[in-house]
Amino acid sequence: MSTVTDLRKDKLGTLHKMGNRKSIEAFSEACWYMPGGVNSPVRAFGGVNRGPLFIAGAKGSKIFDVDGNEYIDYVGSWGPMILGHAHPAVLSAIHKAADRGTSFGAPTLAETELAARIVGAFASIEKLRLLCSGTEAVMTAIRLARAYTGRDKIIKMAGCYHGHSDSLLVVAGSGLAEGGTTASPGVPDALAGLTVVVPYNSIEAISQAFEKHTGQIAAVLVEPVAANMGVVLPEPGYLEAMRWLCDENGTVLIFDEVITGFRVAFGGAQDLYSVRSDLTCLGKIAGGGLPLAVCGGRADIMDLLAPLGRVYQAGTLSGNPIATAAAIATLDILAEGRAYRELESSAANLEIELAQAAAEAGAAITINRVGSLMSCFFTDKPVRNFDDVRATDIAAFKKFFAAMLDRGIYLAPSAYEAMFLSLAHTKQDIDRTVEAARESFRVVAGEK
Ligand code: KE4
């Protein structure tokens, strides 16, 4: 067990070369009060063996640390900030809502307005429940699927991450992938045993799981575009075959679109790939960057939720008026449609120029991208599942991350996360990023 001193000793010595004294001091103090000095593990920079930056603020495509360093931000709070940080329309909506009070614990018109917008954006969502986090949304979807089918088992894909509810911390991605933890301590084997894990992009494996557990599978849960093992795209026909297998077996298909919802298209990955899930989980962008998430889908399943049905789910801050205001302001801008054309243009440009810069430096990379969601893997092979990701050169990624950070480019501090572009990223930002990458690829190749 690391003590605070060990942690600080391990971490502080490898902190940034350039001026990060205040982040170092802030991290040291935070470690006295909070496990690992952070309130979510991936923020600790454990995946890149450096101390974390403490952030003072952000605006548009830029983020600023407590030492006054400015970075072009490709984390975007792990996905929500598709408009860019501190968008004027979102801030105005938040301020107006806050002036009327911050929480009532009672229904508001804004919740209905937001629900109507989401139902309008997702053909598969007939009814929904607003809640506070992606974890809650997926936990609720699993509970609904188990109640609806009367079955206990679920199938999930290795490397996909669906929040930290007990059933899903099994061969998960995101922060769990870093630690080499496949199932978190504290999750009873009896519960973990109800989760069947199969490789992403293998219909054969899902089909075999259905044969082995015939009549026992309540749900198949998947990120339709995986983004917690880096970005991994569904192979042609993968989602369609999954839909068919669920129909054949009376199993609920749950799309975890917490990242992809409103990111890869206004109607999410299910719109892009024309495959309808029975239940959909949304978060991040859907909440405009505030604590709001969504569990929605077929009315015959959603109506099982209390108070209409007997499946219990509740939350003090569900549908919070500040969060719904931010969400409505965000979705109304994205609904204009031009947003996705602009995001596609910026991201396609970045992808092409990064590939060119890597080739010039002799760095072997594979870029997986869907719209403004992308990952750069250090490998000369395709990356189709979690094993492929684990076989990439993670050490090279860590060198690249550090070199980019030292050049003012803030990437997700883990090879198992994604890069997110926003509408605020300009051509100048992209050019600066590519220039930094050109040098950083050479650092990785050992030339600098
Ligand atoms: P939250 O409980 O963190 O709001 O959502 C959980 C979740 C569910 N589903 C997907 C596909 C997700 O990506 C997430 C959370 N994503 C991580 C980053 N990949 C959040 C960052 C963090 O854990 O601090």
Polypeptide structure, described:
With 448 residues, this protein is of the alpha/beta class. It has two domains: 4-85 and 337-445, Aspartate Aminotransferase, domain 1 (Alpha-Beta Complex); 88-334, Type I PLP-dependent aspartate aminotransferase-like (Major domain) (Aspartate Aminotransferase, domain 2), CATH 3.40.640. Helix content is 40%, strand content 14%. It has 16 helices and 14 strands. The strands form three sheets. It has a seven-stranded mixed β-sheet with strand order 4-10-9-8-7-5-6, sandwiched between helices. The chain has a four-stranded mixed β-sheet with strand order 1-2-3-13. A three-stranded antiparallel β-sheet has the order 11-12-14, with helices on one face. The chain is globular and about 60 Å long. The two termini are 37 Å apart. Residues 1-10 and 12-18 have low confidence and may be disordered. Bound molecules: ligand KE4. Ligand KE4 binds next to helix 5.
The CATH topology of the largest domain is what?
A: Aspartate Aminotransferase, domain 2
Tell me the CATH superfamily of the largest domain. Type I PLP-dependent aspartate aminotransferase-like (Major domain)
Q: What global shape is seen?
A: globular
Helix content: 25-40%
SSE order:
HHEEEHHEHEHHEHEHEHEEHHHEEHHEEH
Q: Give the bound compounds.
A: ligand KE4
Overall structural class, as computed from helix and strand content, comes to alpha/beta
Distance between the termini: 37 Å
Number of helices: 16
The domain count comes to: 2
Give the CATH architecture of the largest domain. 3-Layer(aba) Sandwich
Major β-sheet profile: 7 strands, mixed
How much of the sequence lies in strands comes to: 5-15%
**Low-confidence segments:** 1-10, 12-18
